[in-house]
User: What shape does this take?
Amino acid sequence: MNKLLTAILSLIFIINASAQQSPFTDSKYFEMRVYTAHEGKMPDLIKRFENHTTKLFERAGMENVGYFLPVDKSDNKLTYILGYPNENARERMWQSFLNDPEWKKVYEDSRKNGPLVKSIEETYMVLAPGLNDLPKPSASGIFQLRTYHCFDGKIENIQARFRDHTRALFEKQGLKNYPYFLTVEKDGSQSKLVYLLGHENQSEFEEAFQRFANDPEWIQVRDASEESGKIVERVDAKFFTALPFSKMK
Assistant: This one.
């Protein structure tokens, strides 16, 4: 019964999210793709995106939302976010892209000295309801991608806390709010909250986040929101920089 309720709540959130707007994007359905490059192939992969792939995505109707590299250089991955009008459009646009003769030529030419991509991870997302109404911030030098895994039935609680308190408390410390998403879980499990925070550099980000964590107002908000139980089971966080051709900066 709990799994059924979680699936129903997740579906309601996703339907509501389809009507959301964001200053960063006109799209309604999103995909975060993580490419692990073969050893030594990351420069070629970046070049292929910058010179060809992003333009061919746009030709197929996709929106290039953001392109990022991890600060940890040992993590040989490129992360990017694409936007679509809806889920069905995503399938149609990818078929158009993959069947584009220009892409086929670019793809084959780029593989003459070996394949560039070792593996691909995909995460589907929609805009989180009520969390994308803030003005677009100035450009950032560093980003942190944060993913919240909530306890069952608590995804609405975390959204309410961010909507009513957390985002403003981030800004109070100089942290910049970027898009907030809910994952679309194909197995019907509870969505995760995924968002980006920005700052000028990593050291200033870490200092600002520590001030946030120690802010008495935040501590009061957190404790009050958890009177009926903990909300967040785990947070995944990773630092990124935006690539020069990234729309999101």
About this structure: DSSP finds seven helices and eight strands in the chain. Residues 42-59 form the longest helix (18 residues).
